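Let's study a protein:

___
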Amino acid sequence: MQQPAAFGKWRIAAILAALLFGVGQSQADGHAGVPWVASWAAGQIRIDPKDALPAGQDLTLRQLIRTTIGGGRIRLRVSNALGSVPLTITGVHIARAVSPSSSRIDPSTDRTVTFNGVDAISIPAGAEYVSDPVAMGAAPFATFAVSMHFADLPKVQTGHPGSRATSYFAPGDELSAPEINASTVDRWYFLDGLEVVPDQPAAAIGVVGDSIVDGHGVVSNTNTRWTDYLAARVEKDSLAVLNLGIGSNCLSETCIGPSAAARFGRDVLARGGLKYVIILEGVNDLGVLTRDSPVSPQVHHALVARMIGALAQMTARARERGIKVIGATIMPYGGSGYYHPDPANEADRAAINAWIRKPGNVDAVVDFDAMMRDPAQPNRLKKIYDSGDGLHPSPEGYRFMGGAVPLSLFAASKPSGRRR
């Protein structure tokens, strides 16, 4: 890919600046050994071309994200994990947003974000970069505006399409603009995480899953996913909650984005300060199997074996890092007109849930199946918790889920505040 002439000049200046100042700056800011803890994160997939930002254009993208715990310093994680060419970002700023539903920022808080001591970066295809520390405090549940300027956006873009948060983009360099009069889209691009140096020992809870974790049906900018309700309950204990759900994602199969098993290392285990992981995934594996036509008992059996294998491997990988694994049972979806499950599908779901519930397979269980099902029709969601599609929770269902996770699950060990 041919780079713009301006990029060549920038690259020379960047190399010189990094050589002269980068190492010293990194040491001065204490990069090594700093107990960074993730406060916000998003699972990454390759953005569908119809949802991509305009390729080849000079524009500024402003995205809003919300912390779950606070700290005295922050840094960003930027991703080109699913890209096919280097991602060139000519500038990044961060500021406090005036509200969760506006591109307006508080200009007095506007800060330049550097990488290795320079303002611009070129992230190789498949890579993720972490910024230098920013001397900027973050309160719990604060909304930040992260602005990125691109001189030439690539066609293949990494991001998170189910943001349930509005992003803003406009032509040219608008990094420090108090407000962007812009086009809007409810997706995140390239932004992978925000980490903090907490003021006291802290840790993170990662929640990996599909659209039920991602927040299907949640109104944008309201922060009413079930993980948001959980975050409000555990913040007092210095626990961050990281929503790593991806809509239409699968546990072991190839659906939308890499499977949970495939993305577990990058999206989950790599998070700063991760101490706990909740796994709520698998309904799409079960539903897709027979959505178009029935399959043989042998095919059903093989799918269940793959799903259990994925759960067992994810559990083993987390345990070897000292991370507690909390298995969440797959909720009923017998009323789904999209998947229209039959008794064989229900038997598959029961087999997966039985494995999760069996002592020793995971470290603890959140039995959403038992909590959310209709006692009169156990293969269906309770009506008050059903969004109406027989698959996704209603607003009341999400509220209930966030309040139903036992906080005792996170009291077994004291948060260390150390990056694993």
Q: What stands out?
A: Confidence is low (pLDDT under 50) at residues 1-32, 413-420. The CA atoms of residues 204 and 240 lie 4 Å apart. The longest strand covers residues 59-66.
